[in-house]
Automatic annotation (TrEMBL):
This is 5982_t:CDS:1.
């Protein structure tokens, strides 16, 4: 059975021109889903980058020594 995650309402301010582009490209009823997916994707990319940087640091003994 799939668990249902609670939702939070978020109010953001964007330029009118950006909103119009979203309406044209995504569709009026699909903007919220598009923004949710885009933000999730961006957060995953940032997390992956951080993990990769930690791995690179850990693989380099000189960097570990400098970090201490």
């Amino acid at each position: 059975m799939k668990s249902i995650e609670s939702k939070q309402t978020l109010s953001i301010t964007i330029p009118t021109s950006l909103y119009q582009k979203l309406q044209q490209e995504v569709g009026k009823g699909k903007i919220s889903k598009f923004i949710k997916e885009t933000v999730e994707e961006k957060l995953i990319e940032k997390e992956d980058k951080l993990v990769q940087e930690y791995r690179e640091c850990y693989a380099n003994p000189r960097m570990i020594k400098e970090a201490k």
